[in-house]
Amino acid sequence: MMAEIGSGKKLPAGLYVVATPIGNLSDISARAKEVLKNVDLIACEDTRMTGKLLGAYLIKKAMLPYHEHNGSLQRPKILGKIAAGGSVALVSDAGTPLISDPGYKLVDDAYDNGLRVVAIPGPSAVVTALSIAGMPTDRFLFMGFAPTKTQARTTWFEAEKNTAASLVYYESAKRIAGSLRDAATALGPRPAAVCRELTKKFEEVVRGTLEEIADRYETSGPPKGEIVVVIAPPGKHDSETAGSDISTEALLVAALKHMTVKSAAAFVAEVTGEKRKGLYARALELTAEK
Ligand code: SAM
Q1: What is the pLDDT of residue 270?
Q2: Please, are residues 83 and 103 in contact by the beta-carbon 8 Å criterion?
Q3: Which residues form the pocket of ligand 1, taking CB atoms under 6 Å from any ligand atom?
Q4: What angle do CA 229, 240, 129 make, to 5 degrees?
Q5: pLDDT by residue (tens digit) across 108-142?
């Protein structure tokens, strides 16, 4: 008979994929704590981070670093231990493993080796953001981390211009203004929510159009903390642009071939109704990229 999780007895052999808090230490399930307490080994991204987390729950456990740079070396050890009857938990620094975090190959290989994989669900920033962004959630596309360079990022957004779903992505605080500006250029005037420091002391959701929020952060400078961006699907809010196949970005690129940065920004602002300030900043970036 299998030991019941939480009984304090040895766990059945398997890989336990355990979600941990994304900020608030109370956001861990009773089951997650029991599993972390009872497994033979914890595979984690960073032993110092996980050591601190375990300390907060008064858990002491052997840990093995598992991240993208040592995965191929560590996988056989972890899978071998499970095959020999052991139980191994996989955790990431925060949130749910595999969601923009290591673990996919390990889980895949565990199945290939006929091993048991057990989900111990809990927080994930993507779902937490969706729960309070106030955007449609019937369909959403999680896009992971945005590219860091403006050209790649604009193309990345443009590829989803017609996707009938809310778009969700992870972004660093220092790049938030730039990525919202590129999203506005590529997707048009859509509602969005910047969900910051979720479950932490300074949790905040800033809502507005992509342009408005980009303006805000361009003016205020980058905020602090961790961020998830949720963008509403295409809908009536962007009907102003319906019927036009030309993106603001393409218009700006064309205008820059014939005009100064200032005139191109003014011209595109007049044609599209977008804010001149943001277009000017984008025109400067495009000129610098040449
Ligand atoms: N596996 C994690 C999960 O399930 O959410 C995500 C890991 S990913 C490496 C880290 C990114 O998630 C951060 O850069 C940020 O974009 C987002 N994130 C994590 N915690 C967050 C929080 N408390 N508030 C807002 N965003 C957060």
Answers
A1: 78
A2: no
A3: 22-23, 92, 94-96, 99-101, 124-126, 170-171, 195-200, 226-228
A4: 15
A5: 999 999 999 999 999 999 999 999 999 999 999 99
- Sign for the pseudo-dihedral over CA of 118, 122, 123, 129: positive
User: What is the C-alpha to C-alpha distance for residues 151 and 147, in angstroms, rounded to an integer?
Assistant: 9
Question: Quick one: which atom of ligand 1 is closest to the CA of 199?
Answer: 23
CB burial of residue 201 (10 Å; 0-12, 13-18, 19+): exposed
Give residue 266's pLDDT.
86
Is the separation of the CB atoms in 139 and 166 below 8 Å?
yes
Reduced to 3 states, what is the DSSP secondary structure of residue 75?
helix
Burial 59-95 (b: 16+ CB within 10 A, else e): bebebbebbeeebeebbeebbebbeeebbbbbbbbbb
Phi and psi (nearest 5°) for 142?
-85, 120
CA of 170 to the centre of ligand 1 (A): 7
Q: 12 phi and psi, to 5 degrees? A: -60, 150
Sheet holding 226-231, edge to edge: 140-145, 166-172, 226-231, 191-196, 204-209
CA 40-46-51 angle, 5° bins: 60
Distance 283 CA to ligand 1 centre (A): 31
Indicate the pTM of the whole model: 0.81
Strands of the sheet with 41-44, listed across from one edge? 63-65, 41-44, 87-91, 14-18, 117-120
Low-confidence ranges of the chain (pLDDT < 70): 1-8, 236-246, 290
Q: What is the pLDDT of residue 265?
A: 87
Neighbours of 50 (CB within 10 A): 24
SS3 170: strand
